[in-house]
Specification:
Layout (H helix, E strand, L loop, with lengths): L1 E4 L2 E4 L8 H8 L18 E4 L2 E4 L12 E3 L12 H8 L9 H14 L5 H8 L10 H12 L2
Parallel strand pairs: 1-5
Antiparallel strand pairs: 1-2, 3-4, 3-5
Helix pairs in contact: 2-5, 3-4, 4-5
Bound molecules: FE2/S2 (inorganic) cluster (FES) (2 copies).
């Protein structure tokens, strides 16, 4: 089956039980999606699939035939970060970074649809992403900062 991942066209041959996160990490070597709970709770496996935030541990790889998948790696680089990444850095909104793929992609998706979100909307958008380090105050502040910078 064919996929587009972070702009590259790839061909894969997944086992029927492989999830999309398995393929992204194990076959394609992406470290910009992470495996946590594998049951849809933590959000660290989040990627954009055809523009929508998706927990890739919940998607069988075979169901993603032809999809356009964007991971955190497609957003920015260390020297040229995406504005939401800059905002998370500026607000010290992470420590270990394990939750960042989901946090940042959820924020990017929110701001694409809702450029000036309320705190309640930000909290709702981040609610599928668990962070065991920082709590959520700084993450909310980071999304607020990214919205103000647009
Ligand atoms: S690994 Fe997918 S939601 Fe936790
Ligand atoms: S920064 Fe460590 S889990 Fe969020």
């Amino acid at each position: 089956m064919r996929l587009q991942v972070d702009g590259a066209h790839v061909q894969i041959d997944p086992d029927p039980e492989d999830t999309l996160v398995d393929v992204l990490r194990d076959e394609l070597g992406s470290t910009a999606v992470r495996v946590g709970c594998r049951n849809g709770d933590c959000g660290t496996c989040t990627a954009l699939v055809d523009g929508q935030c998706v927990k890739t541990c919940l998607v069988l790889a075979g169901r993603a035939e032809g999809a356009r998948v964007e991971t955190l790696a497609s957003l920015g680089t260390e020297t040229n970060p995406h504005p939401v990444q800059e905002a998370f850095l500026a607000e010290y909104a992470f420590q270990c970074g394990f939750c960042l793929p989901g946090m940042i992609l959820s924020a990017v998706t929110l701001l694409a649809d809702t450029p000036s979100p309320s705190d309640a909307e930000i909290r709702n958008a981040l609610s599928g992403n668990l962070c065991r380090c920082t709590g959520y105050v700084n993450a909310v502040r980071a999304v607020r900062r990214a919205a103000a910078a647009r």
